[in-house]
Amino acid sequence: QSVLEQLESVILKGEIVTEEQKVLKLSKDYYWYSPVLKDDLEEKKADFIVIPDNTAEVSEILQIARNEQIPVTIRGAGTGNYGQAIPMTGGVVVDLSRLNKVIDMQLGYVKVEAGMRLRDLEKQANVQEQELTIYPSTFAKATVGGFVSGGSGGVGSVTWGNLWDGNVLAATVMTMTDPIEIFTVQGNELKDYIHSYGTTGVLVDVTLPLKPKHNWRQLVLKFDGLSNTLKFTREIAESSNWKKRLVTVLEAPIPSFFKPLKKVITEEGDYAFLEVADEQYEAILSLAKQFKGKEVYTVIPDNYRKGIGISDFTWNHTTLWALKADTDWTYLQNFFELERFEEQIELIKAKFGDEVLIHIEWLRDRGRLIPAGLPLVKYSSKERLYEVIDFFNRNGASVNDPHTYLLGAGGWNLQLESIANKKKINDPYDLLNQGKLPTPEQVSAS
Ligand code: FAD
């Protein structure tokens, strides 16, 4: 029996996709964000896509793939932008989007199947007056398993930190062993699975913390000068007295790329995009006044997430709007140093001018407050891009390179050795997301 025939005999409720165009589409993510990855990954595709309906079907697929020694790449919604979900060596892409049910929701946590979309989950939590701690700006599409396996942080990270900061409580892992095993990991063990691109196992369900729901108010504030915007946002980000979900800084003219906001945004002026507790709205406006900032747009809590909202212009959505305005934009990810971020930004602006536009997402990482950069860079060549990266690094504004599909080469301080060891145990034939975990030679070359 061919692999396809074997799969057809076990996938009874799910779906197998063999049609060329659909296979191509479901083999790709947002890798084209990076002009470097676009060249590297354009040709990659799966042999076929399987969309299982339940965990038992996932297990059947893994068994067949293991017996036949076929590579398997897991897909959530395919919104990753480092080519994480792209099969490097063909084989089967397993799309988990139909594993989308809440298993158990209680006060303080939710256990959910890995393919559930984060926005749907947040909606269900809101019914119980609860909310997620963190989610990516892609939450309308992105899945829980894809976020945990391929993301890092997002809305909420200014208060609650990243995925590694207690924002994942547990995960049920399925291995590519003989026999297939299924077990739950929690606490420190999760480090081998978070942001590991599914190289160490398939997450079939995940338990996330929930917090009491707030009434969030979204705000766009315009400032005269980047320095005032940075100082104001630092005050909001730093003090726990301010209840916030999002504190973003956008240098002019980035906000003018946001077409839906064109009535309220001008080319000049630097902007802060915020999500704050509604009861602090007036106090935030008076603080902004001290830094010569003024409100240009607000979304009241009743309209929160109805239609396009402020968070749709932040995190990596900022880059998406820039790309819509001009396809030559690309981006970097970096951590500025809290002690001297203004000086670091001045050095970068003095060196590169409008070739680099500043975008900051304030976040916490292992408790530390960080002005994290997602700067836009006008792309001219790979060499020039790496000159920019080099300048950032030499000035302590350390870059997590987003122009690589190799796990860990993009930063995030992953424990690659531990992940590699876990992979040997959970995936001894190296079939899960082949080619993403760098070899020791690739690590030293990067
Ligand atoms: P996919 O892209 O489908 O998968 C991501 C990785 O996880 C792949 O390696 C895949 O193989 C693996 N995987 C998926 N599901 C599983 C599973 N169940 N078990 C094991 N492995 C699995 N990221 C952020 O962190 N924060 C942001 O704010 C953010 N904003 C973004 C904005 C835009 C416009 C875009 C294009 C991307 C953004 N990203 C952001 C990146 C991406 O959206 C996130 O990583 C997202 O959470 C991925 O979810 P997904 O379901 O699309 O995962």
TrEMBL record:
<feature type="domain" description="FAD-binding PCMH-type">
    <location>
        <begin position="41"/>
        <end position="213"/>
    </location>
</feature>
<dbReference type="InterPro" id="IPR016166">
    <property type="entry name" value="FAD-bd_PCMH"/>
</dbReference>
<dbReference type="Pfam" id="PF01565">
    <property type="entry name" value="FAD_binding_4"/>
</dbReference>
<dbReference type="GO" id="GO:0008720">
    <property type="term" value="F:D-lactate dehydrogenase (NAD+) activity"/>
</dbReference>
<dbReference type="InterPro" id="IPR016169">
    <property type="entry name" value="FAD-bd_PCMH_sub2"/>
</dbReference>
<dbReference type="GO" id="GO:0071949">
    <property type="term" value="F:FAD binding"/>
</dbReference>
<dbReference type="InterPro" id="IPR036318">
    <property type="entry name" value="FAD-bd_PCMH-like_sf"/>
</dbReference>
<protein>
    <submittedName>
        <fullName>FAD-linked oxidase</fullName>
    </submittedName>
</protein>
<dbReference type="GO" id="GO:0004458">
    <property type="term" value="F:D-lactate dehydrogenase (cytochrome) activity"/>
</dbReference>
<dbReference type="InterPro" id="IPR006094">
    <property type="entry name" value="Oxid_FAD_bind_N"/>
</dbReference>
<dbReference type="GO" id="GO:1903457">
    <property type="term" value="P:lactate catabolic process"/>
</dbReference>
<keyword id="KW-0285">Flavoprotein</keyword>
<keyword id="KW-0560">Oxidoreductase</keyword>
